[in-house]
Structure formats: C-alpha cells, structure tokens
Amino acid sequence: ARIKGVEFVKSSGRAKDCPKDDRPEFAILGRSNVGKSSLINALVHKKEIALTSKKPVLLMPLFTSRLLLLVDLIWFVALIGKTQLINHFLVNKSWYLVDLPGYGFAKAPEAAKMDWCSFTKGYFLNRDTLVAVLLLIDASVPPQKIDLDCANWLGRNNIPITFVFTKCDKMKVAKGKRPDENIRDFQEIIRQNYKIHPPWIMTSSVSGMGRDELLLHMSQLRNY
Ligand code: GDP
After folding, report:
1. Which fold does the domain 6-223 belong to in CATH?
2. Cα separation of the two ends of the chain
3. pTM assigned to the model
4. ipTM over 0.95
5. Which of 79, 205, 209, 211 to mutate to test the pocket of ligand 1 (most atoms within 8 A of CB)?
6. 59 or 17, which is more confident?
7. Which residues contact ligand 1 via a Cβ below 6 A?
8. 55 CB contacts (<8 Å, ≥6 apart)?
C-alpha cells in the first residue's frame, strides 16, 4: 500500500459538482484542529521532500490539472484547510482521497457547529463511489459531543465509517486521560448508544503510528 502519486483534481462547492468518476473514494472528516492536514501530509509523506516548509501560496499552480508535486499538495491542503469546499485528490491514479470541510470551529455558535451537515449531507447521501468516511477523532481529549453526533448521523444513514484516532502520541496531560483511555471512553459511548461497531485505527502524524495500517485498511476496503 504505497502512495506513488497524488494529483489534485477539483474543489467542489456542492456535492453535485464532484468529479463524475467511478473510482472509489474515501472522505476525510473531523473537527477543526483534529489534525486532518497533518494526517494527510503524513499519508503522502515522502522522506526526500521537505514537507514542512510553508512557502507563499501565491507560487502555487492552483487549479491546474497537471500532476501536482507532493509538496504542492501540502501547500494546497494548508491553503484550503479553512474553506468550505469538497476537495478531490486522485491517488495512484486509482482512488480518491476527499478532503471535506472541518466542523466545530471552536468560536462558532452551537447552531453553526453542526452546520457541516447541511453542507456535506448531500455529498454523503449521494456519492455512490464513497467507500468509507475516515472520521478523525482527537485522542488527546475526552469524547466530544459533536464527534459523537457526527458518528451517529453517519451511522444512522448507513454510511461506512472508520474511526481514525489522531494525536495518539500525546502524553497524559494534567488531570487528563491518556489517548488509549479517551479512545476506550469514546468507543464505549458509541457502542452503548448508537449500536455501531466501526473499525478503528490509532494514528500519530508525529511518530507515523498507524500510517501503514491505515493505507492497508483502505486498500482492503477498496478490494472488498
Ligand atoms: P486540522 O485543522 O485538522 O487540519 O489540524 P492540523 O493538522 O493543522 O493540526 C492541528 C494541531 O494539532 C497542530 O498544532 C498540529 O501540530 C497538532 N497535531 C496534529 N497531528 C498531531 C499528532 O499526531 N500528534 C501531536 N502531538 N500533535 C498533532
């Protein structure tokens, strides 16, 4: 399960503008600040390329259809990170990684926090080629209502989920719990209340934990 090439294909403002293609895709979703950009970077990471440098985005060949260099992808993810668009990246010319808008911006009012639904609902409900949603959950904090609500909504609509726990390298903070304890608490609430049992993977973009496992998991789901 190696990533040989990533090509930015399209940003779509509405579900029906997404690429018309029958190649399988995985959507990446999570609370803002969950570590989504870091995880995408870690997934496509190639050691020989300095991925961390943040060059001015103006230099980027935006919205072109040519094969983007990996480093371009990183800039792009950084640039669009805060915008409300569905972004399709074609991996190895065979499947899509779809970056969805983050939800639950810390400063947004309660109502706006769940607003991701109205925007992405159409995407989830109508995208036939969607294999699974990689729902990113921050393992360094206790279970968050908005993540539980999101998992519940996806589950109720029969959309396959994989829980991808992020920041699993983080050490116990004062009074806080360890990532594995937060994960256990989260799973417990999900099992008891929502009766769904999605597969789950522990990851860290810092240590690289879970990267290969996640890529393998996606390849297994694609071939299923
Ligand atoms: P996004 O808003 O979901 O795209 O989140 P970012 O990828 O920008 O990450 C948000 C913050 O969490 C940044 O300060 C990252 O350095 C930090 N972060 C992301 N992934 C990890 C991780 O695996 N481990 C640790 N310790 N910190 C992380």
Report:
1. Rossmann fold (3.40.50)
2. 15
3. 0.83
4. yes
5. 205
6. 17
7. 30, 32-38, 81, 102, 166-167, 169-170, 204-206
8. 75
